[in-house]
Write a structure and sequence with these properties.
The protein is an alpha/beta fold. The chain has one domain: 2-enoyl-CoA Hydratase, Chain A, domain 1, CATH 3.90.226.10. 49% of the residues lie in helices and 16% in strands. The chain is built from 12 helices and 10 strands. It has a 6-stranded mixed beta sheet, with helices on both faces. The protein has a 4-stranded mixed beta sheet with strand order 4-6-8-9. β2, α1 and β3 form a beta-alpha-beta unit.
């Protein structure tokens, strides 16, 4: 589910559901949450790197489980999505992402919590919220505008379009685009530079870097959670999941027309 390796005070967490494109089911949310908590508390770990196994970084929330949630046949994990986002938001040490392939949903929005993002030149991300009939998540309504500016963040969060590695670097969402075979080595080279420093200094430096956000992350998550609650299982979301299962494009115009006629 998740592989953990340590090297020179750097802990590498590898999301390891390659057959599911490292999509987050409840078990992977729980495992990642606990791995981050353990790394935060471990005095031998100075920096954490998250990457993915296989051809994907993460395909986001497992859509099979999302459909189960809508049908009422869903069993929540111990921590789930909220617990993992809590850990990402509060993680006190430098957090690097090595985005090795496609990243969708939380596989894209978690970039907003990283201190440095390295992307394979073949990697790309998508925030598919509007194509699923839902709303942004994981405080991306604050982190993305802070990193990208409002208009670029609006395009990334509202369009459900793919964004390539070079464009992510140009926008400010990633630090470097690296050849696929060099991605992890280049990420670790930078991580080890920081890992050679005092952990206390790294923690306090990160704290002051993020202090300007104040409680905006928590406020953003509360607003996003409410928007998600209103939309999850609604007509557009049901149409999106049905279309996904039927391997067709969703017809949101028809959904909107029915809503207008009924309303």
């Amino acid at each position: 589910m998740i592989r953990i390796e340590d090297t020179d005070r750097v802990r590498v967490l590898t999301l390891d559901r390659p057959d599911a494109l490292n999509a987050f089911n409840e078990a992977l949310y729980d495992a990642t949450c606990e791995a981050l908590a353990d790394a935060a508390a471990d005095p031998a770990v100075a920096v954490v790197v998250i990457t993915g196994a296989g051809r994907a970084f993460s395909a986001g929330t497992d859509l099979i489980e999302m459909a189960q949630r809508n049908s009422g046949a869903f069993t929540a994990g111990k921590h789930g999505f909220p617990g993992m986002v809590d850990q990402l938001a509060a993680f006190p040490k430098p957090l690097f992402l090595a985005v090795n392939g496609l990243g969708l949903g939380i596989g894209a929005t978690m970039l907003g919590f990283a201190d440095l993002v390295f992307m394979s030149t073949e990697a790309r991300i998508k925030c598919p919220f509007t194509s699923l009939g839902v709303a942004p998540e994981a405080a991306s309504s604050v982190t993305f505008p802070a990193l990208l500016g409002r208009q670029q963040a609006a395009w990334v969060l509202l369009s459900s379009e793919w964004i390539g590695a070079a464009e992510c670097v140009d926008m400010g969402l990633a630090f470097k685009a690296v050849a696929p075979d060099d991605l992890l080595d280049e990420t670790l080279r930078h991580a080890k530079v920081l890992a050679s420093k005092s952990i206390a200094s790294l923690v306090e430096s990160k704290k002051v870097l993020l202090a300007g956000l104040g409680d905006r992350l928590a406020q953003a998550r509360a607003r996003e959670d409410e928007a998600f609650r209103l939309l999850l299982g609604g007509p557009a979301n049901r149409e999106a999941l049905t279309a996904f299962a039927e391997r067709r494009d969703p017809d949101f115009a028809a959904v909107d027309a029915r809503a207008a006629a009924e309303g």
